[in-house]
Amino acid sequence: MEFKDRLQTLRKKNGMTQEQLSERLNISRTAVSKWESGRGMPNIEALKRLSEVFGVSLDELLSGKELLDAAENEGRERVGRQSTLTFGLLDLLACCFAFLPFFSQPRADYIATVSLFEYSQARALKIAFFAALGSMGAWGLAALAVPVSLSGRLRRFARFGSLALHSAAIALFIAAREPYAAFFLFVLLLAKVVLIALENR
Fold first, then answer.
1. Whether 137 contacts 88, CB under 8 Å
2. Which of 55, 62, 113, 144 is the most buried (most CB within 10 A)?
3. What is the C-alpha separation between 195 and 151, in angstroms, rounded?
4. What is the pLDDT of residues 37-68, one digit of tens each?
């Protein structure tokens, strides 16, 4: 008997509707419906609560393979949430580059490195630099604000957006001949690529 059938049997045996079970578990009725139709699996915490509600062990709820699958899914979700947080932090870190002396400013007989706030070479370029770093910072804040609720598809979209903004910022700094900013942004981009590679192995 599969988990979906066991769950439905236990729920009916205990005289509960899907709505009542969802209230006891503090989740949506849709989640219970998905579990019973085989379109989804509860995470480990929800499985523990189910076993408490029905007074059965996890072994009685799941077969060995289903338990392993649930643990693997939980691990993947945890890694996904952590990498989303890391992406957000890296984007915020890139935003901090505006405060560091990464930008070249011609002086009388030499070229100094200054922060973006001191940069006065070209107003339009300064605005473009602030826009690039600011959009990365905003993207990072958004990733930090809602990482737990992101589904797999939304998480992939968030990562793609982060990588696209990062690449565009690097291209902007290379085109503007700002090697320090381009180099350090490239290092952060490499960190993101390594993170994705580690997650997908």
1. no
2. 62
3. 18
4. 888 778 778 888 888 888 888 777 777 777 66
